[in-house]
Amino acid sequence: MPLSTALQEFVDDELTRMPALIEQVRRQTVEGLRQPADAGLSPTERMQRFDIAKELETQAQRFNDAFVAELSGLLRSDSTAAEASPAATSGLPRGLALLDEAAHSADIEIARCASLISSAAEWELRELQTFTSALCGLPYVSVTSSPLRPEAFARALWQAVDAMPHARSNPLVLRVAAGVLAEALRRELAAACTRLEGQGVQQSLYRTAVPAQGERPSVLAELLDSVPAKPGARRRAAAADAASADLLKSLFDAIAQGSQMQPALRALTGLLQPCAIGLLKHDPQLLENARHPLWQLLDRFAYQSATHPHAADPQLLAWIGLAAELVANMQAAPMQDAQAVRTSVEQLDAYSAAQFNMQLQQASADIEALQRDDPGVVAMDVASMDTVPADLLPGAALPEADPSAAQWLEQQAAGSWYRMFLRGQWTVMRLLWRSESRARWLFAGPHPQRNDAFDRSALVRLRAEALIRPLVERAVVVRAAESVRRRLADPRKAG
Question: Where are the domains of the chain?
């Protein structure tokens, strides 16, 4: 969503402080290169570090400007990124980006830098989220409210190092600078929180985190048992008593507050609440089984939101259109059982499968190109690719694959969704196809005009570095039930 005016003003103010911050980082990086802690360096390595330090001194303005320009672009584009539609890239020429292991060296270094920043400034980043959420007008903390994310600073630092002809070829420079930047940002973010507090900004509240204990379908029955008895009320003698109806409403409220659904799907969830209360009169399983069709329907809503993060994604909009029709049908007729909901889940799953088949059809030319042997792949316009595959380079040698990562990769199936750190940022990708030899893997990204093909070794390395993670459908009602139970257990919140 676009940044609120208050948050935009905060971001602009922080950007004015960045030239001084990166200048401090540059100076300390130069000192670190000239006075390395490792005493076992060879004379050649020491001279190399000295030369790079000298370049950072003579090209100081170039280094600083590259950092500020990249960070400014990232932070200011954040206000429109969530609104951007993949269809907006339809003017781009269609292409197949073939990415090998070498193509991800930058991503891996950027991810390591971002991880270092996250570790060093973990507390400050969390506290800042309470203020930026408040600047967005949110009562509870949203982890996506702050544009000042570690990945943005890591990408800006990479761009600054890349602007140095000698430094760009040495990953050590980024690693030394990353440690300095992490500590500088820790202090800057703490100061930013102090300034916002001084301006009278009231922090948003963190919701209590749910421990990762896995899905427990029985949690709903346990929750029902924990509801305090009311004088004259029947407890579980009838599924539609007042306590159960109140509990169901609390579950829907918790789902709306706790899940990261797209706004349109959150609205449909609210429309389903009266249907659920009506269904509860005939189906006590609704409050006893986390795999009830109604909860599965809401699971699909949450999963679509996770796999289609762009609100204007044509695939998402089409899926929401069908979901809205199905919800309207359920509203029109009283539900005596869960069959109407079960049918809706089946229809939405079938539609998702049809969308995947359409993606495959649209990618048929890319798949045909990848099915050819190596000379056939070389025959593609290599000059137009983002990178040249490693096995097309003379004398290129692939490192030994990580066994556990390689085993994980073999278990992945077409149609699965992933979060992947690609081109310096986390991106949602879908596995479309893999060759019979498993040498080539084709993924669809957020832009319909461009697919990404990967060498097997590249994916193995990404998995080994935890830079590709499967997106798994979660039982949203289980998280909601845990939240409601904690509230009931706390007299201050329950009252």
Answer: 5-92+103-198, 219-353, 362-470
